[in-house]
Structures
1.
Amino acid sequence: MARARVPRAQHAGRRLVNGAASVGSIGTPFDPDRMHAAYAVDVIDGGRPADAAFCRVNMVASLDGAATLGGRSGALGDHEDQRLLSVLRSHADVVLVGAGTVEAEGYGGAAVVDADAAWRTARGREPQPRFAVVSSRLGLGPRHPFFADAVARPIVVTTERAPADRRDALGGVADVIVAGADRVDLGAALAELAARGMPSVLSEGGPRLYGALAEADLVDEACLTLAPTIVAGDAPRVASSAREVARRMRLVHAIPGERMLFLRYARGG
């Protein structure tokens, strides 16, 4: 699952230019400028139009492949992982997350820290990217912190079969996108976001959303923070779906932090 929040004190084809893998030194302090450059998104992969959707997924995992510790992914991260989360969000128009992860990880409030909000503003963008929640049943009410504490108008991605009264209620606090009849059509949802001027999407899971994106072949980049922790138990993997898929990715970089290893992969390989 995703790491929902930036640190509480600060809360309130696209082709890669840097295509070669890079490795730093263990224990290197976090450098925001370096990380912004390392995770830049520049042009569309595969010759797609410039306004086509681009989907990057960011997750954290233990050394033995667990996506959570004690039921939360945030317990696997550290201050550098949280800071990177803000950097990655800074490069996105929309942060896409499943409803279960919103509940489990406590989403609500600002997406990026003040320094990254300034980074976005300096580049002619709104200070904060928008959050979008994927939900077929619309179990989150309008007073949930995801909506009530939002600093940029949230988005709800749902289906035609979603309860009409809940959809209407959420329409007062968020933009509602209907994509799919019985289950959310993620390809249609990403296309609609791109059509609304939000082509760059960062998905933070959880595992079922990641699995659905992988099944639909919508993952353009996979970013993974590898935590130096062994969890064992029965924690989920970072991606989960009803059937296996084989999507080959190529390593773009491996950047060691003070404790974590930050990995970035792109389509192909």
Note: Helices lie at 32-38, 79-90, 99-105, 114-121, 145-148, 164-170, 186-195, 207-215.
2.
Amino acid sequence: MLPCGIFRDTFPSAGPDLAKLLFGSFVAGFTERRLPQMISKVTSRGSEVAEGDDAADR
């Protein structure tokens, strides 16, 4: 079981620090869903371009 002091020692001590933590958590959660979609779009476009270059070389 975790000691109770770990929460007291690691929690943001000031309001601006708490705001930064909440904002960073929101951005990380939002990016978690969007990033894989962006990566798949970029890789599919890259493979289409590479296939087009191969066809032009033939």
Note: The chain has a mean pLDDT of 78.
